[in-house]
Specification:
- 65% of the residues lie in helices and 0% in strands.
- The protein is an all-alpha fold and 113 residues long.
- The protein is built from four helices and no strands.
- The chain has one domain.
- It has helices at 24-56, 62-66, 72-89, 91-107.
Length: 113
């Protein structure tokens, strides 16, 4: 295999998902909250590092950050990032919706009737 070939792994684990609560909706909400918490912690740590570095170097003041307005390209990149994070946070709900849609289409009468 060459170094340029990309290995693609399945995104969906096989088998049932472990349940912590009797109601699956609570498990989904817990998973979403943990995902959000992970995203927030990483973001806050990175933001703290950037702000400290900028302050140490005297490059940027807090008011510069507060008054920043993104240009069109930056706004588009932010939108894409927001979409990516939303997909991760709502992954289980999206997966459940896809399964339900497949189940409905599998149960739909075919042309052989």
């Amino acid at each position: 295999m060459s170094t340029e070939e990309k290995i693609t792994l399945p995104r969906v684990a096989k088998g049932p998902r472990p349940m912590m609560f009797e109601d699956e909706a609570n498990d989904v909400l817990l998973s979403m909250n943990v995902s959000l918490l992970s995203e927030l912690i990483v973001t806050r740590q990175r933001l703290d590092a950037v702000e400290r570095l900028l302050d140490q170097k005297g490059i940027l003041s807090q008011s510069d950050v507060n008054n920043f307005s993104p240009n069109e390209d930056a706004a588009n990149q932010r939108d894409a990032l927001r979409e990516e994070i939303s997909d991760r946070v709502f992954y289980l709900l999206l997966q459940q919706t896809e399964r339900a849609e497949r189940a409905v289409s599998d149960d739909a009468p075919g042309e052989d009737i």
